[in-house]
Write a structure and sequence with these properties.
A hairpin with a 6-residue loop joins strand 9 and strand 10. This protein is mostly beta strands. It is built from two helices and 50 strands.
């Protein structure tokens, strides 16, 4: 049974254009911000000039930075901003982004200093962030002094100083701390407010060294490690320090080398402050083969840790005089176990279990672990190579996706050919997001060969989130159809954060994934430099077609406001429900691109009939499109002819007849219908399209 809405929407016969959303698997996407548009929370005379890659906290709170320009009110079309380069910071949810001006924020001491937010790499579940700051002090005579440092803060609390280059920490009065290379790295902030960071240390009369420090929520700064100083009473000095990882229970994990050992040792610092090696060259490896020891632990840059301090890492190991093997291990100091990869076919062997860095390893608080493997071998005399993303889930180790698998959301024969070793993420709901390359029919490398997919380990279902060259809605007020363009698109934060605990990254425990794209207009063959950030809520129930269309175009599924069925978003006077039925987006002007519905007279068998040609999207679920003919504009004269709901063929009727139906490249249908009454039989005839929302 089909229930009709009480209102019918008539389609005025204006010109309208063609655009469809090719986001496969019905994953809800929400446009958060796009350059060239009015930023969230600002007046119409402001525009976004640039957007930094977004992050999302474990609770789904989104944060990103943007540069905002001001346009003179009297000249809103003036492309030259009067005031530009103002950094803004946004935090919140897709429907409620709160902005703050990140410049000229007073600092308590000295009074003539302000600070400006530059980088926010981490956010925890309470919305607290940890970021790199630049401080500007106005000196006597009007000159300025610029310093760097780190602060914590939120959208409701003023930033709190962690350290600053021109102010020695109270706990270390002889130290001057500098951000390493003046570049904010992926620092740590756990859910109790503890922060950990790596920086350079300057001490008068000494060579500059590198250190790792941690600061608790109570404000006490503690040194965890420092190069040129002994690691412990029995261990030589540290030579190089890698990025640290901090867990919710306060355990700190980092990698380091010593002057006598070029390989990295992974160290663990307990919440009580005890520093012990987790793994180091020569340590017995927990394998089933006698006399095997670790030879080269990985993990200088990223370490996968869970909230309780359990650490996963990759390493090479082997017996003396034997070739090294690659392996994945997990545990705590003195309690490590090996994660054995899946059994391969006879004749196949692994070339890598995890890549030669631990960037492919992800571990959540449930003990679920994922990593990438590659393999090769000879089967029946033929050389075979392969690769997979492997998961250890509820005690079972098996591939999640493998080279050669059909890529969901793509045409038959399009298969996975590679998985990005950096861009994969695992949340505490045992959901995975990964970036992959595909090959097969219709795939052009560098154009539509990359995308993001998601897998739910509980259900085993893999879905496409977005793929290069997919068409993304631009939202109301924009003029271009936009496609993701490979060379600059799908821009992440570089490496996804692999740590557990309170780290922020691009994937939350609520199933929210955020990403940045670069647009290519339909009329251009190159990326146009327009950027946007999107949110994909992967654990949400799939939206209906009409609800998804509203969410994509207006950020809400409600039939109200700008997204209401009867609302008219553009100058072509086509209401929203009509646009949806015809496969149009809110920002398109259907009156200017030469694809309008056309009324004409056509002679068929020596008799002239009224003819209506239009485009219909059979994927537009929840809407009914009908052709009607009347002798006047009064409601009683209209007689309904051909009807279109979903993919069903229009039934035969006495009022009109479908003449042609052509499937377009984007899946829509170009349809021509004639009235069954010759024009010579009546004084006048009217022909129209009507759209109505329906509920199955």
């Amino acid at each position: 049974m089909t229930k009709f809405s009480p209102s019918q929407i008539l389609i005025p016969l204006f010109c309208f254009g063609a655009c469809s959303i090719s986001i496969a698997e019905n994953v809800p996407l929400t446009l958060l911000a796009r350059t060239g548009t009015v930023p969230p929370g600002r007046a119409d005379n402001y525009r976004l000039d640039d957007i930094y890659p977004p992050i999302v906290g474990r609770d789904g709170s989104i944060a990103f930075q943007a540069v905002v320009s001001y346009l003179p009110l009297n000249h809103p079309a003036n492309p030259v901003p009067r005031l530009s380069g103002t950094p803004m910071f946004y935090i919140g949810t897709p429907q409620n982004l709160v902005w703050s001006n990140a410049t000229q924020i007073p600092v308590d001491t000295p009074a003539n200093t302000t600070h400006r937010l530059l980088t926010i790499p981490t956010i925890n579940t309470s919305g607290q962030f940890f970021g790199r700051m630049i401080y500007t002090t106005i000196l006597s005579g009007g000159s300025t002094q610029t310093d760097y440092g780190y602060s914590t803060g939120s959208n409701t609390a003023a930033p709190q100083l962690v350290y600053r280059t021109d102010i020695s920490p109270v706990e270390f009065p002889s130290y001057t701390l500098f951000p390493l290379n003046n570049i904010g790295a992926e620092h740590n902030l756990n859910d109790s407010g503890q922060v950990t960071f790596r920086c350079r240390i300057g001490v008068s009369g000494q060579d500059t060294t590198t250190g790792i420090f941690t600061k608790t929520a109570s404000g006490v700064l503690t040194q965890v490690a420092r190069t040129s100083q002994p690691a412990t009473a029995t261990v030589p000095t540290f030579r190089l320090l890698g990025e640290p990882a901090t867990t919710d229970n306060g355990t700190i994990i980092f990698a380091a080398t010593t002057p006598t050992d070029s390989y990295y040792t992974i160290w663990s610092r307990s919440p009580a402050g005890a520093l012990v090696p987790l793994v180091q060259p020569g340590l017995a490896a927990p394998t089933s083969t006698p006399n095997e020891v670790f030879t080269s632990p990985y993990g200088r840059y990223q370490l996968a840790v869970s909230a309780d301090g359990t650490t996963a890492f990759a390493a090479t190991y082997g017996a003396p005089g034997q070739p090294d093997k690659h392996g994945v291990f997990i545990g705590t100091p003195g309690n490590l176990t090996q994660v054995l990869p899946p059994v391969l076919a006879p004749g196949m062997s692994y070339t890598n279990t995890a890549e030669p860095t631990s960037d492919t390893i992800r571990l959540n608080d449930n003990g679920t672990l994922i990593f990438k493997t590659t393999s090769f071998g000879y089967i029946n005399g033929s050389f075979i190579s392969g690769g997979a993303i492997v998961a250890r889930y509820q005690g079972v180790i098996a591939p999640v996706v493998s080279y050669g698998d059909q890529a969901p959301g793509t045409p038959a024969g399009v298969t996975f050919v590679d998985f990005d070793r950096y861009e994969s993420a695992l949340n505490n709901r045992d959901e995975i997001v990964f970036r992959a390359q595909v090959q097969g029919p219709g795939v052009t490398f560098g154009t539509n060969s990359a995308g993001y997919w998601t897998t739910n380990l509980a259900t085993g279902v893999t879905r496409l989130i977005v793929r290069d060259s997919d068409i993304l809605a631009t939202g109301p007020g924009t003029t271009n159809t936009a496609r993701i363009f490979y060379s600059d698109s799908l821009e992440g934060t570089g490496r996804f954060l692999s740590r557990g605990g309170g780290s922020g990254g691009q994937f939350s425990d609520t199933g929210r994934f955020v990403f940045k794209v670069r647009y290519q207009s339909a009329a251009s063959s190159v990326a146009d430099g327009d950027f946007a950030v999107f949110s994909a809520d992967l654990t949400s129930a799939p939206l209906s077609g009409l609800a998804q269309w509203r969410m994509t175009n207006y950020g809400s599924v409600e039939n109200s406001g700008a997204g209401a069925d009867l609302a008219v978003p553009g100058p072509d006077t086509l209401p929203n429900l009509v646009r949806y039925a015809l496969g149009l987006q809110a920002g398109e002007n259907g009156a200017t691109d030469g694809t309008a519905p056309r009324v004409a007279l056509q002679e068929i068998g020596g008799t002239t009939y009224p003819v209506l040609s239009f485009i219909y999207d059979p994927a537009a679920t929840g809407v009914r499109l009908a052709v009607s003919i009347g002798t006047d504009l009064g409601a009683m004269s209209w007689q309904e002819g051909n009807v279109y709901v979903g993919t069903a063929l229009s039934p035969t009727n006495p009022v009109s007849t479908e003449l042609t139906r052509i499937t377009l490249s984007d899946g829509r249908l170009a349809i021509t219908v004639r009235g069954n009454t010759p024009v010579t039989s009546l004084t006048r005839q009217f022909i129209r399209l009507s759209a109505a929302s329906v509920t199955p």
